[in-house]
Design a protein that fits this description.
Elements lengths: L5 E4 L8 H8 L1 H7 L8 H21 L3 H4 L6 H10 L3 E6 L6 H11 L6 E4 L10 H8 L3 E4 L12 E5 L11 E3 L2 H4 L8
Parallel strand pairs: 1-2, 1-4, 2-3, 4-5, 5-6
Helix pairs in contact: 1-2
Bound molecules: magnesium ion (MG).
Magnesium ion binds next to loops.
C-alpha cells in the first residue's frame, strides 16, 4: 500500500552543498569570505544567497560546469532514493527566488531525478516571501529538515530537524541531527 507520509526538505546545505562550492570554486566568494571567517555563519549564507540571486546569469555564464560541480550533501542522494522507494511524498521548500527556477530544476534533475513532487520557491530575498511554515501546512508535512533555524522557527506541531552545522548551534529549540543516516533513524521512517 502506498505510504502517505509527507516530508519537506530545504535545498541548500541540506541536499546541495551550495555554500561550500561557492567558497571553494568561485573567486568572488573565496576572496570575500575566506579571510573573514573559517566557518560560514548564517549571515554569510544570507549574503551569499542574495549574491547568487542577483548574479545568477553571470555566474552561469562564467562557469558552464556549475550545475555538475556543485555536489550533493553527503548521503543525501542515497537517503532521497530510499525515501522515494518507500513511497514518501517529498517536497522541497527553499529560500530560492523565482528567477532561479530553471537553474534549480536542472541541478535537482541531475542529482535527484524524479524525486520531488514539487519545489516551492519562498523568495526569501524579495518582498513576496512565503513562510516555510505555511507551505509545510499546505502539503501536510510531517517532517521538515532545514539547516537555517531562522526559517523554521515558527513551524509548530510537526517534527523539525535542524541539520547540524557550526553556524546554527546557538539555536537549541529544535531536534538537531548531523547526517542523513541519522535522520533516517527517526520514528517517522519506521514502517
Ligand atoms: Mg539551507
Amino acid at each position: 500500500m502506498e505510504n502517505t507520509k509527507v516530508i519537506t526538505i530545504d535545498c541548500d546545505e541540506v541536499l546541495c552543498n551550495t555554500a561550500e562550492y561557492m567558497m571553494k570554486y568561485t573567486d568572488f566568494f573565496t576572496k570575500r569570505w575566506i579571510k573573514k571567517h573559517t566557518t560560514i555563519m548564517l549571515d554569510d549564507l544570507s549574503e551569499m544567497y542574495h549574491f547568487i540571486h542577483e548574479n545568477l546569469e553571470a555566474l552561469q555564464e562564467n562557469d558552464k560546469e556549475i550545475i555538475q560541480n556543485m555536489l550533493p550533501v553527503e548521503w543525501a542522494q542515497e537517503a532521497v532514493q530510499k525515501m522515494v522507494k518507500q513511497w514518501y511524498k517529498l517536497y522541497i521548500i527553499t529560500w530560492r527566488t523565482d528567477n532561479m527556477k530553471d537553474f534549480t530544476y536542472q541541478r535537482l534533475n541531475f542529482h535527484f531525478p524524479n524525486a520531488f513532487k514539487e519545489v516551492f520557491f519562498c523568495n526569501n530575498y524579495k518582498n513576496k516571501a512565503i513562510a516555510k511554515s505555511s507551505l509545510c501546512e499546505k502539503v501536510g508535512s510531517q517532517l521538515m529538515i532545514d539547516d537555517d533555524p531562522r526559517f523554521v522557527d515558527d513551524i509548530k506541531d510537526i517534527t523539525v530537524v535542524i541539520f547540524d552545522r557550526p553556524r546554527n548551534r546557538e539555536y537549541n529549540n529544535k531536534k538537531r541531527m548531523s547526517s542523513w543516516n541519522e535522520i533516517l533513524q527517526l520514528e517517522v521512517f519506521e514502517k
